[in-house]
Write a structure and sequence with these properties.
Number of helices: 10
Strand content: 5-15%
Radius of gyration: 37 Å
Helix content: 55-70%
Distance between the termini: 8 Å
Structural class: alpha+beta
Length: 416
Amino acid sequence: MKFRSVWALAVAGACGMAVPGHAAEVLRLEEAVARALGSHPSAAADAAQLEATRSRAAREGLPAPIILGGELENVAGSGSVSGMDAAEATFRVSRLLELGGKRAARQALGGAEIDAAQRAGDVTRVTIATRAAGRFIDVLAAQEHVEHAQERIAMARALQREVGRWVSAARNPDSDLRAAEIAVADAELKRDQALERLESTRHALAASWGALTVDFGAVAGDTSVLPPLEQFQAMAAKLPSTPQQQLLESQAGVLTARRNVALAAARPDVSVGLGIRRLEATKDSGLVMSVSVPLGSRKRSAYSVSEVDHELSALSARRQAQAVELQQELFDIYQQLRQAQLEVESVRERQLPKAEAALKQSRRGFEEGRFSYLALGQAQKTLFDLREREVEAAARYLRLLVEADRLTASALDIRP
């Protein structure tokens, strides 16, 4: 895999911390994508379809068969042709002589259909790989949410104990202790919700390679390590070489090959036969020769050529429409990437440092009796909310990169 999102998280996974208890079962992004590409039923279906296309192409590329035939005439009739006395038995060998390069045209059509089947498989592989990458990012973000929830509980419980001491010393009102207990309960609820979300995302990731149960432990990575964003022009330049566009090109190749088959059909084939006939009445034998040529081949060929020409025109229009839509879709994703990038930078560089400083000041003021518990609790909530926002923004940035990869990846990126 050469996706930019895979590369970034693969590097982060090599040095990131895994969830405790699953170190021996850690799953990295490139491994998850490889498993999906190697085991997903859709990939197996495309492989089987490709082999079916190859078999059909090999069959259609064979020469016209030799036909063995026989006839028995003037048998079991009445009068002079009763019984077998007047029977005429003929044994014939015949073959269709294809003219106009029909076999070569069929072989070229088979090659074009094989190429189209391979391109369709590439499109499927891009879908499988990017879906697995996106689900991996979901699991990674869910893991980090669980870690933050655990930290939030630990801090809320520590503050609850501290408030309890101040309440026992009659320095703070009982309402502060009730508020601290509510904060602990809320943190525990968020932890439980994060765990449920993590379990859901883990099952979705396992389904990426066709598993019905989770067969891995933690995933390795770090959403704080984000790859840089390319210029839009550089990303858009990759669109003409994507599997989606190449599939349309290969479909055009199939239609062109069909057109050549139709053109070759304008020249009629000749069917020739040679046999021997036995005349039972005279006990004599003689050679039998036959030649046949179908009529109307040129008119039928013209209709077939016209049909393919219109299909080629329709395909060309669809290619132009798809190119415009892909360009616009990529631009929309790029704009969302810029927004996610700006959000991550704002939270990390401007908001989180201020929230951490505010928490320290609130903590110091609370210990000195100058600030209320509510002020300290609000500072803690603000800090953890920003941490959650940072994870979500970073995960959204990575998911959008995966979507950009889906639109711009080349066949070499996802072929084994």
